[in-house]
Amino acid sequence: MIIQSSLKKCFQSHCILKIPTAGFQWAPKGGLILQSVSQDVYQNLALEDWIHDTIDLENRHILFLWRNSPAVVIGRHQNPWQECNLKMMRQKGIKLARRRSGGGTVYHDLGNINLTFFTTRKKYERMENLRLVVQALKALRPQLDVQATTRCDLLLNGMFKISGTAAKLGRTAAYHHCTLLCNTDKHILTSVLKSPYNGIKSNATASVPALVKNLLEEDPTLSSELIFNAIAEEYATHYHADKHITVINPADENEFPGINNKAKELQGWDWIYGKTPKFSISKCLNIVSEQSCLDVKLNMDIKNGKIETFDIDVPQQWLPPMMCNKLKDNLIGSKFCPSETAAAANALLRTCTDYKLYNKWNLLCEKVLMLM
Predict the structure, then answer these.
(1) Among 33, 149, 162, 353, which residue is least crowded by beta carbons within 10 Å?
(2) If we measure between CA atoms, which residue out of 174, 167, 169, 149 comes closest to residue 159?
(3) How far is it, in rounded angstroms, from Cα 96 to Cα 268?
């Protein structure tokens, strides 16, 4: 059963002190089940951070249920250019987010359930949480063949991945979150999680590809709501908690003071792209113009999401070194992204008065932009 009630009203009778965070901070001991009304990936990730950073989890367990509109979520130590098709995501309006936990890249939409289990660090136990999810699914549909693996994934029929796992372990608090594929658009999933970029060298954590399947493909009578409630009921039984799911709004500053600043940081360029581990790109660009066809060697180092070094080998008879040096000077220090690189390239192009050189320079800049 889902109750539409603010946390303050829900728990006011249990509070002795009335302070701005009384609803959440002074919730009864034991298990608490929350469900987000938001479908915004940044708001939901911010709520994870808020609970982890704010709530005393001693003698308290929290399960947070949430879903997002289309988004790709990468792990804390991953490289988005290696993990997903950024160009396609921009075209389709699919958001990119970097979470605080490690692990691999996942695709979210409304057909994907997200579960976050909060405990103290001492009580953190991934496999216990996954067994709880398996038991909930078995109770809902006994015929489902779902098992947890040693990698802390969930497999359907022994081969199809339906859930991936990641975690954040703080000094005293911890959370384990996992996905659960219910009715995700698999065509979009496979398309956006396939990077078209090559020539990248990086020590960033790489995702491990896997076959996936939706639970609703196995049993069309299931729904996300049924699965939500089954997991909530199993969680409540396990932790002797109230079976009610408390619906919350993670954008509510009155309930969660400071949360919007956390969401703002998570959707900022410096966090999403700037936290990418240093990487290098080595490419041979094939440039075809009306009068020539040549290969151009390009090497770049990207640090904190910005171009640190830029070396390009272009035949002098095709493009004067002075023009290549201008491009290099303008790009070094700029963000490795289409908008900023295009602005730098266009500024240089406007200084070129030779029509033939302009066309060659424009072709070169277009090739560089395709790397982003």
Answers:
(1) 353
(2) 149
(3) 10
Contact 302, 334 (CB under 8 A): no
- As annotated, the residues of the chain forming the CATH 3.30.930.10 domain(s) are 2-272
pLDDT digits (tens, 9 = 90+) for 86-104: 999 999 999 999 999 999 9
For residue 321 the two structure tokens come to 């070194």
Phi, psi at 66, each rounded to 5°: -155, 155
Please write the tens of the pLDDT for every residue from 234-285: 999 998 888 889 999 999 999 999 999 999 999 999 999 999 999 999 988 8
Amino acid, res. 37 = V
At the fourth CATH level, the homologous superfamily of domain 2-272 is Bira Bifunctional Protein; Domain 2 (3.30.930.10)
For 93, phi then psi, to 5°, come to: 70, 30
* CATH (residue range 279-369): 3.30.390.50
Q: Which residue(s) pair with 286 in the sheet?
A: 295
d(CA 185, CA 181): 10
Q: Measured between alpha carbons, how far is residue 156 from residues 79, 91, 229 in Å?
A: 29, 32, 20
CB-based burial label for 343 (10 Å; 0-12, 13-18, 19+)? exposed
In this structure, are strands 154-156 and 146-148 parallel, antiparallel, or unpaired?
Answer: antiparallel
For residue 57 the two structure tokens come to: 């989890």
Burial of 25 (0-12, 13-18, 19+ CB in 10 A): middle
* Residue indicated by tokens 């002074």: 26
